[in-house]
Each structure stands twice: as structure tokens, then as C-alpha cells.
Write a structure and sequence with these properties.
The chain is an alpha/beta fold and about 375 residues long. The protein has 2 domains: about 35-235, Alpha-Beta Barrel (TIM Barrel), CATH 3.20.20.10; about 255-380, Lyase, Ornithine Decarboxylase, Chain A, domain 1 (Beta Barrel), CATH 2.40.37.10. About 30% of the residues lie in helices and about 25% in strands. It contains 11 helices and 21 strands. The protein has helices spanning about 15-30, 40-45, 50-60, 70-80, 95-100, 110-125, 150-155, 180-200, 210-215, 355-360, 365-370, and strands at about 10-15, 35, 65, 85, 105-110, 130-135, 145, 160-165, 205-210, 225-230, 255-260, 265, 270-275, 280, 285-290, 305-310, 315-320, 325-330, 340-350, 350-355, 380. The strands form 3 sheets. Strands 1, 11, 12, 15, 16, 17, 18, 19, 20 and 21 form a 10-stranded mixed β-sheet that branches. Strands 2, 3, 4, 5, 6, 7, 8, 9 and 10 form a 9-stranded parallel β-sheet that branches. A hairpin with a 5-residue loop joins strand 13 and strand 14. Helix 1 (about 15-30) packs across helix 3. The longest helix is centred in the middle third of the chain and has 20 residues, at about 180-200. It is elongated, with a radius of gyration of 24 Å.
Amino acid sequence: MKFITPPGRPTWAEIDLHNLVHNFQAMKSHVGHEVAIMPAVKADAYGHGAVECARALERAGADWFGVALPEEGETLREAGITRPILCLAGFWPGQAHSLIANDLTPALFQIEQLDALENAAKAAGRRVEYHMKVDTGMGRLGVPLAALDQFLEQATKFNSLKLDGVMTHLASADLPEQADFTARQISLFDESATKVRARGFTPRWIHEANGAAAHGIQRSSNGSVNLIRPGGVIYGLWRDVVNPTVPPLDWRPVLALRTRIAHLKTLPAGSPLGYGGTFVTGRPTVIATLPIGYEDGVRRALSNRGRVLVRSQTAPIVGRVSMDLTLVDVTEVQGVELGDDVTVIGRQGALEITAEDVASLADTISYEVTCGVGPRVPRVYGCAGE
């Protein structure tokens, strides 16, 4: 696949939309066509670019999109996305009218939210749908199980609202050692869905599974679950969030992060490098300066630990990573030249550095790595055949 690099600073992220669609289709085949899929495109699609990714996934048949904030949903609507959009974290005071105007569905868990949405719905002359989130053990957002009966009783009084979905979030679906905890969450969720129906509500959508759960858990319930919410796996990020005891699907990475050598110099032995001089050359050393730093996705934790690919060879990061610049020891890279392509994340020749590799060195997860590719890094999109 050919990507056209942008003008200006030679640092960019390549987004492979063909691989994105491939991953979506792999999940679709895995769960079956009777289950709807809601790709999570929050946080700018985990750093991949929400609008372009949503457009590609909408063409591929995505049923819903999941965002965190109403503002993220509004951006998608402005870009022409037409599929239903769920605001997973609900909405904030003052946003109810905008929520309705942009046809966004909120996940709700407080009666005060229902009050605000009811008033806005009446003002708009609309009946507005929402999904109720139940806290079955994550401990973040959701109606506490002890308060569920009271919540449902009060929810029956809102005539301009329709409870159209019931959801929860599984905390440890990727951890085989916590299988009992996950099974308990699933059991509590099934009981909650039963209570919702017993109160006379008729939700169309029942959902609990993120990518890890959809991939690795054999669901044994009342069979009502009909929607899944894959996140990182859609972007090929799976090694540190999928149950390692379950064979992976053919997940393919979507993002590559690249730059070019902006400056080359040979320094004598004993030369300190970067802020604080945390690396000192032990021999005559060829140093490449890269126009990329921690604002662009090269985490500061990679100082004196990380590596990049130059001319299909590995080169270590030396000295502290700066906000805008990174130093690399290219002494062993045969034929290195000014302007050579450098891969921070991605494949070059026979070698590859994955987001999970970077995350392991930085003591974090791949999601934080790709979300950390800052907005000043242009995303370049490509599909097969381009």
C-alpha cells in the first residue's frame, strides 16, 4: 500500500483502512451476523482518526458507533456519519438539547440525567431513546445494583423517553485468572436485564462485551445479548488486552508512526546527550536527530530504552526523549543518510515494532501509546490498491 507523505515536518502516522475493515470483518465472522457491532471510535478512534475510521467502518457495515462524549458524536454527525451513536459516558449539564439535535443516544445511570433529557425531549417534541448502564462490578459509571429497582420505578414516569438498551462493562474479560469475577458480572447483568423487562420496558439492545469479551468468552446466558462494543482489537491492538489462553483472530495493525532523519553527526567518546546528559557515548558515535518527540507519540519513558527501525535495522534511542526531538544511535546502520525513513511503530523490511512492543517498554498498554500520537502529527490514510 502506498501512502503519500504530507509536506512540512517529516513526521506522520499511516492509517491502513484496509486492515481496519479486515479486523471489523474478522470480528463479525467470529460473533455471527445476528450480533450487531458497535466499534468504539472515542478518543479520536484511539488516535487513528475518528472521522475517517468511522467512514470506513460505516461502509463496511458497522451498526453503531461508540463515543465517550457528546462532542465526539457531534463531530461524527458533522462529517456525515449516519449510523446510531452511543455516548458511553452519558452527557453533562447543558448538553441535552445538543444531544437530541444531533440524534445521539446517551448511556444513562442517574435520575437527574433522565430529568434533564425529559425536559429537552418535551421542548423538542420528540421521544428520545437512551440506554441504561448498570454497574455490575466495574465501579465507575452505572446504576448500582442495590438502587436498580428504585431507578426503574422512577424511570417509568418519563413519558418522553424510551429505555431502548441495557448495558454494563466487564472489568477483567481479558484476565483468565479472574474468570469467576467476569462470570459473576455476566450473571448479575442477566438478572438486571430480567428486572428491566419485568418492569414493562422493552429494550431492543442488550450489551456487555468489549473486544476482549466478544473474542474470548463463550456466552452462556438467556441469549438476549445482541450487541458488542469492540475497541482496540478493531485497530489491531490486542496482545495486551485479549485473553492469552484464547487463540487470536487475524488481527492486523492499523497504525504506523514514521519520521525521517533531520540531522546526522559523529560525536567522540565521552559526549553527553540530551537533557541531563543521561547517555554518554562510549565510542565515536553516529547520532541521528529525529523530528519527533513525546508530544508526537515517542513516550519519554522510552529514553535510553526504546528503539526504532532505520534501513530495516534496529537502532536504539539514546538520551532523554524531548518534546519535539529524539536522538538515535545509528553507528551500526550501514549506509545511513540524512532523510532516511525511520519507523517508530510499524514494519520496515523484515522487522516490526508494534504498539504493544512500545507499551511493554514504557510500562503501559497499547491504547495509551496510540492515543498518545498527538494531533500535530498528520494522519495519512490508505486502502488496498491505493
